[in-house]
Amino acid sequence: MRGTSTKSGSRASLAEVADRAGVSISTVSRIVNGIVGRASAETVARVRQAVDELGYRPDRIGRAMRQRQSNVVALLAPNLANPAMSTIAASTEEALRRVGHVMVLCDTHDRADLQDEYLAAMAAQLVRSVIFLGAVASPALRAASEAGEVFLFVNRRNPHDERAPFVGIDNRGAGAAVAAHFLANGHAPLAVIHSDHSSSAVRDRTYGFIDVLTKAGIAPEMLMRLSAPGDDHLDIGYQAAAAIVAAPQRPRAVLCTSDLIAYGAHRLLTEAGLAVPDDVVLVGIDGNPINPWLAPWLSSVVIPYEDYGPVIVDSLERIWAGEDPGERLLPYAFG
Asked: Where do the HTH lacI-type domain residues begin and end (predicted)?
């Protein structure tokens, strides 16, 4: 966003204000747009002083154009074949429709290049907001985040700024709940299967699980940490479960950081002649609505994906009002 310096006649930019104040561009953008909750009083004062010294003025014409954008909101999803993602998308579409907005749905397939292509396309179409339903690190997202663009992140936090507005669950708590369940039932040894993806959701679910076990005195050799390359959770679960079958001391219970990973692991285990849950207990995180129909053997941390829509829309409306919605954590249940 550019402005005109009334003191020098040249155009002052957010970058120049940020340099003068000694803060990031995104911090300047939030403060000049009235979002000051994340910054200290001293930082706010320093930014405002730099704005005055440089004569920075927001581009009101550009802002007005943005405010006249269509009533279209874009939702970028990482994998619409995942029932959890499609459930959130359906809930969000319905909630947006109720407030007079139309949703455009794009599947990034967890690819940074596709995510950036869609982000550029949505900007060209002047959509009012972009929702990332599972963002990955990418050059365009990094640049937009550093420039102060405000997006809403769901399930996974912004990989370039984890303080960005977020809707999801306490993923560390979910992983910890599974660990506590395994301990309470005397299951040992234990394992966790996760993707190689470095998202906040995968990281926090895994760390929450491991942290509880470590504090309970579980030795590292009693915990198998398994993964496999690729983005397909079904395939990750299938490949990783081969190590369970081959282990000298087979894990009695396994946390799968998504239900789809559990589906893949179940397929490999049954092909190897093992019964779930009699031989190996699998617990997922998602609570996909198809589980009672297709996976009655699976216990799961149930996330209320069907309730995400109203919370997402409320967060968007706060953003549109110039507020910082912060993080919105929904409850989950283990069952």
From this structure: 12-67
